[in-house]
Design a protein that fits this description.
Layout: H1 12-25, H2 30-43, H3 47-58, H4 67-80, H5 84-97, H6 102-114, H7 118-133, H8 144-157, H9 163-171, H10 178-181, H11 186-189, H12 195-216, E1 222-226, H13 229-238, H14 249-265, E2 271-275, H15 278-287, H16 297-307, E3 312-314
Parallel strand pairs: 1-2
Antiparallel strand pairs: 2-3
Helix pairs in contact: 1-2, 2-3, 3-4, 4-5, 4-6, 6-7, 6-8, 7-8, 8-9
């Protein structure tokens, strides 16, 4: 699906079928592709079919990159078509395993919240914040929904602000404060006859909609290709013509960082890095009916990997490991 396709014009069933076919062609990306397909099935109200895709992924848990995320999505989907008991059991299991990825926590907590289980949702958000953010000076961007969701539920429960609520306020970038967006009395203002109250509510809704659009409407990143040292050695051994493109591995890494910084300075947003492998590149070249020695294939290959969900956002979060694979942080490595 093109990133600029309006949501109302999407044939979700057809898009799910296309993604399933693509997963068959690229088994190494099957997890990301099938999760997208399941999301389209949910949007088309084919929830049992979405569950079947989640079960298909969970049938081989050892090969999954993020099994807790798949279980959380399955639980959320099950609860939406009256399989509450099974959904609750899966949610309890996700909480017990305490994943280090914030996404499963957010999904199960929001599922509880949407079914008016506010205390359980609050406990889940708090467990996630305690696990992921204790001792963390600057919360990574991926953890922001944990703090925002916790703030929202606490407002609905009438609980006073605490340190994490204050942190959520500082991370929130919209022109309308979190307290206003999460005010449980907002719904009453919709029935008001006061034009000022209605205008204020319209402003809040516009700000909230803008935040959701920013989160949901990002196209795949502008991605730069990264060859790990071993893969680059194998590539140049098999296709020596590419040595002009990649004189050495250290120079390759420096070129990646400098290219991304130039793109960022020019105003290009949503940048990323995709990691290449020789077998994957050879398969891509074969699918294009071309030779892997053709340098014009390299940016096309990078774009294809990004479209298949293989891109890692650049720059990394402060304190995160460097994208090049070194164990030291990005700030001390290529980000210095």
């Amino acid at each position: 699906m093109r990133p600029d396709t309006p949501a109302e014009n999407v044939d979700h069933s057809a898009e799910a079928a296309r993604l399933e076919r693509t997963a068959g062609l690229y088994p190494e990306d099957a997890e990301a592709l099938l999760l997208q397909a399941a999301a389209h099935l949910e949007l088309s109200d084919a929830r049992p079919a979405a569950t079947a895709l989640y079960d298909r992924l969970l049938s081989t848990p050892d090969s999954l990159e993020n099994a807790p995320l798949v279980r959380a999505l399955k639980a959320s989907n099950l609860w939406e078509y009256d399989h509450e008991a099974e959904a609750r059991a899966i949610i309890d299991g996700v909480r017990t395993t305490a994943p280090r990825d914030p996404a499963p926590w957010v999904i199960v907590a929001e599922s509880l919240e949407s079914h008016d289980e506010l205390e359980a949702a609050h406990d889940t958000f708090t467990e996630a914040a305690t696990l992921l953010l204790t001792g963390v000076a600057e919360p990574p961007r991926a953890t922001h929904p944990v703090l925002f969701g916790r703030h929202r539920v606490r407002r609905m429960l009438g609980l006073p602000h605490d340190e994490w609520d204050a942190r959520a306020d500082t991370l929130h970038s919209s022109s309308v404060s979190l307290d206003e967006l999460h005010d449980p009395k907002r719904v009453w203002s919709l029935g008001s006859d006061n034009p000022a109250e209605l205008e204020a509510e319209i402003s809040r809704l516009r700000a909230e909609l803008g935040t959701y659009r920013e989160a949901l409407s990002r196209p795949f990143p502008v991605a730069v290709l990264h060859w790990p040292a071993g893969e680059l050695t194998e590539l140049l051994s098999a296709y020596p013509d590419l040595a002009t493109e990649y004189p050495s591995h250290p120079e390759h890494l420096s070129t990646i960082e400098s290219s991304l910084r130039e793109l960022s300075a020019s105003g290009t947003a949503n940048l990323g890095i995709v990691t290449a492998t020789v077998p994957s590149y050879e398969a891509f070249a074969a699918s294009e009916g071309s030779s892997p020695s053709d340098t014009t294939l390299l940016p096309q290959y990078a774009t294809t990997l990004a479209a298949r969900g293989r891109a890692v956002a650049w720059p990394p979060q402060r304190g995160s490991e460097c994208w090049c694979g070194e164990t030291q942080s990005y700030d001390a490595c290529h980000g210095s």
